[in-house]
Amino acid sequence: MKKVLTVLTLLFITVNTYSQEHSTKNNTEDTTCKCKKISNTPVTVAAHYPEGKAAFNEAFLNEFKIPNLPEGTKELTFTVQFNVETDGSLTNFTLTNCMNDIAGKQAITILQKMKWTPAMQGEKVIKSLHRLPFTINVPK
C-alpha cells in the first residue's frame, strides 16, 4: 500500500465523448471514421471503468512498472486517447504529451487488457472517444 501511494499517483482523469460518423459520398473519397463531437443528442452515460475510478487506479498501478529514467526525474506525464467500442473493448490508442515512450507504451499495453462499460446515448450503446491524462510521481 505504501509503495502504491509513494511510487505512483494517477491524477486528473477526464472524459471527452465523441460519436463516429462515416463518410460514404463516393469510392474515391476517404471512407475512414471521422470523429464529430456530440452536440444534438447528449451522452447519457460516459464510457467508464466498470468498478469506478479508484478500482481503475488500483488495477493500473498493480501492473505499471516505472522504467529506467534519467537521474532527477520527479514525474512522468502523458495522455492516452482511445476508443471505447460498443462491446467495452479499447482500441485505436494514441499517445500524446509523452515524456517517456516506454512508460506510455506500457500504459497502452495495460489498457488493452481492460474492458470498460461503453457510453450510452439514451438507450443506445455507442462507440466513444476517451482521453485519459496520467501524472505518475517517481520516487527519489
Distance N to C terminus: 17 Å
CATH topology: Fusion Protein Consisting Of Minor Coat Protein, Glycine Rich Linker, Tola, And A His Tag, Chain: A, Domain 2
Structure summary, number of beta strands: 7
Poorly predicted parts:
1-39
**From N to C, what is the helix and strand string?**
HEEHEEHEEE
Quickly give the CATH architecture.
2-Layer Sandwich
- Please describe the biggest sheet, giving its number of strands, its sense, and whether it closes into a barrel: 3 strands, antiparallel
What would you say this structure looks like, in words?
The protein is an alpha+beta fold and 140 residues long. It has a single domain (2-21, 33-137), classed as Fusion Protein Consisting Of Minor Coat Protein, Glycine Rich Linker, Tola, And A His Tag, Chain: A, Domain 2 (2-Layer Sandwich). It is 21% helix and 31% strand. It contains 3 helices and 7 strands, in the order αββαββαβββ. A 3-stranded antiparallel β-sheet has the order 4-3-7, with helices on one face. It has a two-stranded antiparallel sheet with strand order 1-2. It has a two-stranded antiparallel sheet with strand order 5-6. Strand 3 (75-84) and strand 4 (90-96) form a beta hairpin. It is elongated, with a radius of gyration of 17 Å.
Characteristics:
140 residues, alpha+beta, two-stranded antiparallel ribbon, signal, TonB C-terminal domain-containing protein, three-stranded antiparallel beta sheet
Brief characterization of the structure:
The chain has 140 residues and is α+β, with helices and mostly antiparallel strands. The chain contains 3 helices and 7 strands; from the N terminus they run αββαββαβββ.
